[in-house]
């Protein structure tokens, strides 16, 4: 059954149709880590929703003030799978459930948005994205459940996000075609605007080994409004956007990393050479290559988003 949800008066779909450049926010999990806030697994950034909500809210507000059009809620790990694993490991209370945690994460975005002028009172309308991530480890795409299980669980999470008040859904960091198709199929049932984004080894191949071009073709007819690449290095963006532009007529975009994961320690290696100014200059080349949606993933922060806002044009270049 399709969830009912009032799309904002200036929805993402309207803005894409008008050719607007849409600025995503930057990282939340690694920005919390940078500030000394625990983001331990299995909840990752959602752990801070429980332990340090004031820090989560503050980061969202900083992104809003930096010029982000979309704030991405800390719902990357608010699924029953993650919550049950946290309870089993003593990282969550026995009474915690996925819907409560999801609502709390969306509410922190809404509070940050209200602090900078509200949904319709600010100079621009800020939308809240509900993040839908791989059900298992995004850096281990081989651990994804089978398609039927994945579609059911992603559909359930999409309904929770819609119920909690998300304006759009961001299916992100998908490393296999199988899980990406399952996730967008489930998420599309809400009727909310829908973005899908892939984690890649390079500009042509998903982390799980599937060709990016095949992944694009597999999801473009499933109700998605734009297709992106994320959680991939800045240097791979030109090739990734070229693959996207040659594979679909839908709007495209990217939100790359600044640094790389240290999988052994579970921490992030920040790359100080990817300064906000450099990131913004790179961002301008992404727009020149056809990207309509840009932002930052792991390792980026509010300064990167502010620099992008200052440099990017308001609409796609002809």
How would you explain this protein's 3D organization?
The structure is a single chain. This protein is α/β, with parallel strands linked by helices and 318 residues long. It has one domain (12-311): TIM Barrel, CATH 3.20.20. 42% of the residues lie in helices and 16% in strands. The protein starts with 11 loop residues before the first helix and ends in a 7-residue tail after the last helix.
Question: How do you describe this structure in short?
Answer:
This protein has 12 helices and 10 strands. It has helices at residues 12-17, 29-34, 45-51, 53-66, 80-88, 98-115, 147-164, 177-188, 212-219, 237-247, 276-288, 302-311, and strands at 22-23, 70-72, 127-132, 168-174, 194-199, 226-233, 252-257, 259-262, 267-270, 291-294. The strands form 2 sheets. Strands 1-10-7-6-5-4-3-2 form an 8-stranded parallel β-sheet. A two-stranded antiparallel sheet has the order 8-9.
């Amino acid at each position: 059954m399709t969830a009912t949800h009032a799309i904002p008066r200036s929805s993402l779909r309207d803005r894409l149709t008008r050719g607007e450049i849409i600025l995503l926010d930057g990282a939340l999990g690694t920005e919390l880590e940078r500030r000394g806030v625990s983001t331990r697994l299995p909840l990752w950034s959602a752990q801070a929703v429980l332990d340090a909500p004031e820090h989560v809210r503050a980061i969202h507000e900083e992104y809003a003030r930096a010029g982000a059009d979309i704030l991405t809620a800390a719902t990357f790990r608010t699924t029953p799978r993650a919550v049950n694993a946290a309870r089993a490991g003593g990282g969550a209370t026995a009474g915690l459930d996925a819907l409560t945690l999801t609502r709390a994460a969306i509410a922190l975005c809404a509070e940050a948005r209200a602090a900078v002028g509200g949904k319709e009172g600010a100079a621009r309308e800020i939308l809240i994205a509900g993040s839908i991530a791989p059900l298992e480890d995004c850096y281990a795409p081989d651990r994804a459940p089978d398609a039927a299980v994945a579609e059911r669980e992603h559909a359930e999470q999409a309904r929770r996000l819609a119920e909690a008040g998300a304006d759009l859904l961001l299916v992100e960091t998908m490393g296999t075609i199988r899980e990406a198709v399952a996730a967008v199929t489930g998420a599309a049932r809400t009727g909310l605007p829908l973005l899908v984004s892939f984690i890649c080894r390079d500009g042509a191949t998903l982390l799980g080994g599937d060709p990016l071009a095949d992944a694009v073709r597999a999801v473009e007819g499933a109700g998605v409004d734009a297709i992106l690449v994320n959680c991939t290095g800045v240097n791979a963006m030109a090739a990734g956007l070229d693959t996207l532009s040659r594979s679909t007529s839908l709007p495209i975009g990217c939100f790359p990393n600044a640094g790389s994961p240290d999988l052994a320690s579970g921490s992030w290696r920040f790359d100080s050479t990817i300064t906000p100014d450099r990131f913004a200059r790179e961002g301008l080349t992404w727009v020149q290559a056809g990207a309509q949606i840009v932002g930052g993933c792991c390792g980026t922060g509010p300064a990167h988003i502010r620099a992008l806002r200052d440099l990017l044009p308001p609409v796609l270049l002809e």
